[in-house]
Amino acid sequence: MKIISLAFLIFLFTAAASAQPRTLSGVPDKTQARTLPPAPDSLSVKYEGGFLGFKKRQEGTLKFDDIGQRLVFLNENSKELFWFPYRSIFSVYADEKSVTSTTGNVIRTIPIPGAGLGGLIKEKRRFLVLQFEDPDTGGNGICSFRIGNAELLESVIHTLAERAKLVQRGDAFYRPRSAEKQSN
Fold it and tell me: How far apart are CA 147 and CA 46, in angstroms?
């Protein structure tokens, strides 16, 4: 009985010693700010909805127009559909949804035992979400664009926030009300 108690105590001390945080050289610290490459001037996205008059989801291109101080959405034929003046953007942030992939849905419908597990095959969809004031109507809206790459999405958010002069709060960027009143 004493041997078992002694072995148990040794196990506890070993587990406690290994649970202590360690700092390793060469491992990046999470508190350090990451430097992101600037977003490309234009990128392929899928418009998911939110802009008045454009309810159809469609593939297109988001383009930073620094001369016009705006973010432009172009359709597949490179025709400008709508744009957001930088000063009209209230907030910008990323959203992510986990959905069953097409492969998972196909497997799930196969009539064999265990095929229902196909619903466990998931994929992540990443979205750029903009809250804005429509300069034409004066109304507010929330518009989203699907971007496939997480690093590209983060880079676009930081670049847009910098150009629109937004302030960071957590993972989102917003325009403080005091700055909004001063710009009017």
Answer: 7
Q: What would the pLDDT profile of 95-142 be if each residue is shown by its tens digit?
A: 888 776 666 666 666 767 766 666 666 778 889 999 998 877 888 889
The DSSP-derived string for 163-180 is HTT-EEETTEEE--HHHH
How is residue 112 annotated by DSSP? S
Tokens, residue 21: 């945080």
Cα–Cα distance measured from residue 81 to residue 75, given in angstroms and rounded to the nearest whole number: 7
Which of 32, 157, 153 is closest to 91 using CA atoms? 157
The amino acid at 45: V
Q: What's the pLDDT tens digit per position in 3-42?
A: 665 455 455 455 555 554 544 444 444 444 467 788 889 9
Cβ atoms within 10 Å, residue 166: 22
For residues 144 and 75, what is the distance between their CA atoms, to the nearest angstrom? 15
